[in-house]
TrEMBL record:
Entry annotated with the keyword Glycosyltransferase: yes
Swiss-Prot/TrEMBL catalytic activity: a purine 2'-deoxy-D-ribonucleoside + phosphate = a purine nucleobase + 2-deoxy-alpha-D-ribose 1-phosphate; a purine D-ribonucleoside + phosphate = a purine nucleobase + alpha-D-ribose 1-phosphate; uridine + phosphate = alpha-D-ribose 1-phosphate + uracil
Family statement: Belongs to the PNP/UDP phosphorylase family.
Taxonomic lineage of the native organism: Bacteria, Bacillati, Bacillota, Clostridia, Eubacteriales
Name by which UniProt lists this protein: Purine nucleoside phosphorylase DeoD-type
Binding site for a purine D-ribonucleoside: H7, E182, M183, E184, S206, D207
Subunit structure, as described in the record: Homohexamer; trimer of homodimers.
The entry's keywords: Glycosyltransferase, Transferase
């Protein structure tokens, strides 16, 4: 496919090898304005804002990925396959499903279990286990330690449903040691696997469904910078 694509208005070469991908395009704008230098906007199609700039001399892009696996599935597929992107780091929010994962903690998603049917397109003779790229995981762990950021590594749930009719569903995932629930990582990891590229999902815990705790809008803005800085530091 030629670039621009139906969903990304950039020309080939305007997007860096590493893309940070929050769900919210306004968070992409925040990162570009507060962390990057020499910023150029490369996308505004459907208001899914994308920017390229430099961070400590490294060329980095940041772009919104939308909500849910179909959305991030489209954008990550086009970035990996049509724009020669090598690394996508999702930076998002999640709900904790573990007593040991508190508000503001950063979860480094080693694996992404899912209730989605996304993997059916590959016609595999079994169940695929979507996992992050080890190099990105190990780098994120090291940066978190250096910066004294409370980070937890493990398996998360990428859910197709935000409001689930089965009110016992989360209990079943908790019984398997799932740390947190979000809605995008599994599709990102599958697209990366098929494209032979690298992916990682970093999540800030914004709420705890089991206790009813949640961050305020102001707290969310202040807390998410830890996750953003980890992602920027490991960009390459």
């Amino acid at each position: 496919m030629q670039t621009p694509t139906p969903h990304i208005g950039a020309k080939l070469g305007e997007i860096a090898k590493t893309v940070l991908m929050p769900g919210d395009p306004l968070r992409a704008k925040f990162i570009a304005e507060n962390f990057l230098e020499d910023v150029v906007q490369f996308n505004s199609v459907r208001n899914m804002l994308g920017y390229t700039g430099t961070y400590k001399g490294k060329r980095v892009s940041v772009m919104g990925g939308g909500m849910g696996m179909p959305s991030i599935g489209i954008y990550s597929y086009e970035l990996f396959n049509f724009y020669d992107v090598d690394n996508i780091i999702r930076i998002g929010t999640a709900g904790s499903l573990s007593e040991d994962v508190k508000l503001r903690d950063v979860v480094i998603a080693l694996g992404a279990s899912t209730n989605s049917n996304y993997a059916s397109q590959y016609c595999l003779p079994g169940t695929f286990a979507p996992i992050a790229s080890f190099d990105l995981v190990s780098s994120a762990v090291e940066v978190a330690k250096e910066r004294d950021i409370n980070a937890v590594v493990g398996n998360i749930l990428s859910s197709d449903t935000f409001y689930c009719a089965d009110k016992t569903a989360l209990d079943k995932w908790i019984s398997m040691g799932i740390l947190a629930v979000e809605m995008e990582a599994a599709a990102l990891y599958m697209n990366a696997a098929e494209a032979k590229k690298n992916a990682l999902c970093l999540l800030t815990i914004s709420d705890r469904p089991l206790t009813g705790e949640s961050l305020s809008a102001e707290d969310r803005q202040l807390s998410f910078t830890d996750m953003m800085e980890i992602a920027l530091e490991i960009a390459k």
